[in-house]
Every structure is written in structure tokens, then in C-alpha cells.
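User: Batch of two.

Assistant: Item 1 of 2:
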Amino acid sequence: MTKATKLLNALPPPQRARLMELAQEVSFPEDARIFEPGGRADRFWVVRSGSVSLTQQVTSIQRVTVATLGAGDLLGWSWLFPPYEWDFGAEAFSPVRAYEFDAQQVLRLCEEDPALGLTLMRIVAEILAYRLETTRNKLMEQYSIRRSH
């Protein structure tokens, strides 16, 4: 995998149009916390503009950025898996505009249109695989830097 899949661009036009019927336009100011680890994951976003930092709390006072998302990127996937809680935190790194989707509405749409549901789940799985690969590469890079010192 060489680049991140953009969710909306990866959907065939008729399926994208059906999904977009559920979209709400939202915005977040710079430095806004969008969600916290352990919070209820009942929605997701597709970033339209700006950038979002995905963060992991490492100590009680230290947060580490594990990924930075930009235009076209999927923000949030924990709505798909029990216990439906965020694994990471998310913070607007700059002013952000996004499409927001209610998870229950999207899951209902997937049940009504199984072809759309299967396509959506494959795209989300591809996005997760890409993020896992990039995170692994970052960890390996950090490990090799520490070992060389």
C-alpha cells in the first residue's frame, strides 16, 4: 500500500450519493478536542479541509500524535466495533471542516443496501490496514533510532 484511501472517492458515485444524504456539515476550531479515548463512538467524519491529529495518551501528562489526517481522510472507525468507544483522541490541528455521519443511520443504510455496506466495510478495512502499516513503520523507525544511540 502506498497511499491512504479517501473514503468518499473510493465509493462508486451512486453509493457515495446515498451515503452523502446522511452527511451533516460541521466545523471545529483549531485546538478543539473532537473526541477522547474511551468516549462513546457513535459517529464518524470525513475531513473536508484542515488537519486533525490522532493522539494517544502515554502518561497522565503526555500525549503523542500517532497520525495526522487531512482532506478526504476518514476520522473515526470505533463506531464499527464493540464496545463502541474511541481508541484514540482527536484534536483539530488547524480549523477543520468535515462531513459528520451518525453511525446508527449509516449502519441502517448498510443493512438496507448490502452492496453499499460491503463496499463501505472493505474501504474502511483498507484504510485501517494502511494506518496499521504506517504506525508499524513509525514504531520501527523510532526503535531503530533508539538502538543506534
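Item 2 of 2:
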Amino acid sequence: MLTEEKISDLAAEPILLVMIEEYSRLPGKKHDRYWQLRIKREDKPLTDAESEEYELLIQEWEARNVERVRALIALAKKRGTTLRGVMTQLGLKEPKDEI
């Protein structure tokens, strides 16, 4: 993983925008599986294997979100604004519990 400074130095704005989009959620099948497990968990307990899979998906999403924030910070620096400022410019909300 790159530090914010390296990302800011190396990445042009279009690349940062792609990174922000890419890291905003889990890839397709993993995203779908996360939601299957999350919905199932609301109705009944997950099996041990499902619980482990669910936790791994959450960890992956959290790691992706870290990279997303790093790209957002780099973009904010390029634009001479704050993280919140660039998020407002892009129409992004702070992540809550969505993957």
C-alpha cells in the first residue's frame, strides 16, 4: 500500500478518481455474498464457516476503504482542499455501514 504522499505525487487526478470509485465497495461477487450473509445473519445465526467468511469480507472492505480515503486525501491535496471538501465536491457521503 502506498502512503498518501506517494499517491499524491504519482497519481494524476483521473487516476485518483478511478481509485476512489474502485475502492468504494467490494468487487461484484464478494459484494453480493456480503449482503447474502448480512441478511441471513439478521434472521438466524451464521454457521462458523459463514461467520468466518463474513468477517473476512468485512476486513477486506475496511482495507479497501483505507485505500479509498488515502486516494481522497491525495485528491484533496491536489485540489487544495480538505478531505470533507473533496468529498463534498464529489457528492460523497461519509461511509456508514455500506459495502
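Helices lie at 4-10, 13-22, 28-43, 48-79, 83-90.
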